[in-house]
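Aim 2 progress. For FAD/FMN-containing dehydrogenase, the working sequence is reproduced below.
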Amino acid sequence: MDYGHEIEFGVFITPTNQRPQQPVQLAQLAERVGFDLATFQDHPYQPAFHDTWTLMSYVAAVTERIRLSPNVANVPLRQPAVLARSAASLDLLTGGRVELGLGSGGFWDAIEAMGGTKLTPGQGVDALGEAIAIIREIWSTGERGGVRVDGQHHRAAGAKRGPRPAHPIPLHIGAYKPRMLRLTGRLGDGWLPSLGYMQPGDLAKGNATIDEAAARADREPGEIRRLLNIGADFADPAQTGQLVELAIEHGTSTFILSTDDPSTLQRFMAEVAPAVREQVAAERRARGTAVASRLSAAAIALRAEALDYEAIPESLRATAVEPGSWEYPERRNTYLRGGAPGVLLRPTSPAQVADALAYARSQGAALAGEGAGRVPLSIRSAGHGISGRSTNDGGIVVDLGALDRIDVVDASRRLVRIGAGATWGRVATVLDGHGWAISSGDYGGVGVGGLATAGGVGYLGREHGLTIDHIEAIDVVLADGSLVRASRDEHPELFWGMRGAGGNLAVAVAFEMVAQPVGEIGFAQLAFDASETADFFERWGAATEASDRVVTPFLLLGGDQPGRPRVAQAMIAVDASDPDTIVEHLQPFAMVAPLVGQQVIKTPYAGVIDNAPGGAHQGQGEPATRSALLGSITPEVARALARFLDAGTHHFFQLRAMGGAIADVASDATAFAHRGAAFSVIAFGAHRARLDAAWDTLVAPHASGLYLSFETDQRPGRLEEAFPPATLARLRALKAEVDPENLFRDNFTVVAVTAVE
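Predicted structure tokens for this construct:
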């Protein structure tokens, strides 16, 4: 039985400490000559051996590619929850190079002498099953609650989950007897016996027992990899035929050579391994052996019915993330929205972006209407967008995260090229090394592509303009898969539309931008007693509009706390490095209302914007937000904003300053047309209907437009508020030219409603 797994080779190294560096040097040699896996015996009671986990950690630090595993871990002396965390930690540190061979124990007197509990063979099998349950639960960080396994031999009573390994660490079980073989079929990812301990026929009987147990557990036998420890005599090229037979007739796909002799390692990989790979490949071609699926049957069952997974382009298959993939829980959601996409495609080049769009079209993502068969399509740069539309349910997400290069094109012009998948925090840090900056929102986790196609109201906005005002050219992939460069000279109308409505028109893959010379800046965090809210807003607005354009203030108010005064938090960037100048610019703001807290620092711009903690997005449900652009905070507007806060429908309220350099740009120069706005305001609420009712009554009547990236209200009318009539008409004409099938429609499509009904 050939299960179609890729042929791999490992080495089985004795962890001797008589010459402490010997096993380390052997592992390094194994990596150099091409072995895939280095494994080490685990006998904690043997004083002549290194501790296996300590040795693996050391080897991990001095190697780069080779995978590492105990062969096999002595579970009776390695507490399962601790082993799980140790393995996950080392896997994270090595970028996914850890595997776990597990054993139920054998030298029981020595185990007992070390403080372990002596078990019967049957108890050892039960204990290993309990240990596997705990290990897998520790790694299941997407589940809620603590780990609870009430076993007879191993227990977990609410242990916290995590960390999650960098990849799905396979559990290879050292098994010989029927009960252990059945456990392998139920729970294992691999079977790891030693050929020297087996009698003729044992491999066939073992495979049959494992396959039968797997079938009873609703698993495919091919989900379980077959590994085999082999002796040093197999380094003789004359043994090649036997290894080929073991692969083709018994499904062995990982051969682990047991030797501590450097020359044997070298001879095996030079003379035996290539021949085995070549002959197995030829035999498989002749037999038409199917390649083993990288997903389990249970994972495949989670696939979205509307998608044809076999049609995923070859260029994207290896990195595609499906609902059953290990990476899926880490990638399904965005910063604020929970999602359940059918597949995430992760292109690494513009050509692969085109492949992803071709697949989306083939799956019905470009259907004109909203009827049956229409597949959602989302484009993601980093997943931080407030609208949350870079995920979906049951559809396709094109994740541009791998397109994250940042290069200086022309230092004399401060011209930089930035991939759409980079984050603004990283951009700020890279540019800071040159003494440059690009105004870019207020959070470093935001993706370049999302912000640079929408607007970008940032901490340096009043002096340096919107993020889109820095763009000189954009490389985009159109809906038909063609790659074009949009600039003032090439495709100028597309260049106009991409700066403010890019999500409707194409997929931006890279931007050329001119950075500005920015050294250290002043950054103040002030807290005000805002109990007299209307007066506070009016005075704040006046101070902002009177300030020099080197000052860009943002204001934040959370939900009211019972029994506590209303507090407003201000974040004010001052593009100046002289302390006295910074204080002079801040003084009018300090007089707006009683201060209850203050901090002023000098910092590079990166010190302000590179503030994202990293980690997976944990968004849940649908975010409820509203957005408005305000021309000025008049007494009437100030009272309306105060009444909105009094309504208590928000848990987050932010007022961002605009004006200055933003207003210097003509309203028809970019698709972001509301250049006359002095403020952008956004509110988050827990209840959609209540938030909308308060906003529509109190705030919307004073708005001169809205910033679409901050808006999640899907009711009619939002599009017309985001784009003035002439801008919207121009966008619709451009849309008809570059995306006539309306492929890019899942985030406030500009196509008229009558055109899609």
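The two ends are 55 Å apart (CA to CA). This observation will guide construct design in the next reporting period.
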